[in-house]
Amino acid sequence: MIYVMSDLHGCYNKYRQMLEKIKLNNDDLLYILGDVVDRGDDGIKILLDMMHRSNVVPLLGNHEYMAYSVLKKFNVEITANNYNTHLDEDAIEMYESWMFNGGITTSQQFTKLSKEQKDSIMEYLSEFELFEELEVNGREFILVHGGLENFSPDRDLYDYDIHELIWGRCDYAREYFPDKYLVTGHTPTANIDENYKGKIYKANNHIAIDCGVCFGGRLGCIRLDDLEEFYV
Ligand SMILES: [Mn+2]
Q1: Residue 56's domain is classified under what CATH number?
Q2: N or C: which end of the chain has fewer CB within 10 A?
Q3: Domain membership of residue 40 as a residue range
Q4: 142: CA distance to ligand 1 center in Å?
Q5: pLDDT, tens digit, 9 for 90 and up, residues 89-147
Q6: Which residues pair with 135 in a beta bridge?
Q7: Measured in angstroms, how far is the CA atom of residue 80 from the centroid of ligand 1?
Q8: Average of pLDDT values for 182-188?
Q9: Residue 201, H or E segment
Q10: If we measure between CA atoms, which residue out of 66, 72, 131, 73 comes closest to residue 101?
């Protein structure tokens, strides 16, 4: 079976509860569409769990992108050679923007890790893909964190830049593909339509799965084989 969830935002307990609920086993595949870190307390703890599961496939969210960009810059030894040049204005701006977006919990947890754990987290984050195309049970799916900003039907998926894919949002009122489902996180479903508060949004060949767990909502998960929904 193939499952998809998104926007865990540090909610480790909800993540573990969902794995129990769907009874994830080694023959299953679980896609996590980004924003594992920030806001909630335990983003790093979730990453440390995910990276040891060969059947969990992570895609990049804007929060991993911010975390990775900043930590790459800050996770270096300051020496006599670089102390006055290492942190330029760009790095400080990136750090401030990450903190503004709830990065403090991730930053604090990262600091407490061993050198080996830090390196393995950085290596893991560097491998996150931007999107995935799948066919399951005769249905086609595109999985991406944010959306396909500046969408045009004849634009190739590889032509979207990283910001369009992870910061962009979908126009959920518009059907993008007549024959494919676009599965996204990033935009809490309550922001698409209040009636979908805490629920997976399915309309116009969109499947939006961020049910706002870190804002007191629920964690949603969808099984692509039969479009069954799960909540904790
Ligand atoms: Mn996001």
Answers
A1: 3.60.21.10
A2: N
A3: 2-231
A4: 17
A5: 998 999 999 999 999 999 999 999 999 999 999 999 999 999 999 999 999 999 999 99
A6: 140
A7: 38
A8: 98
A9: strand 201-203
A10: 66
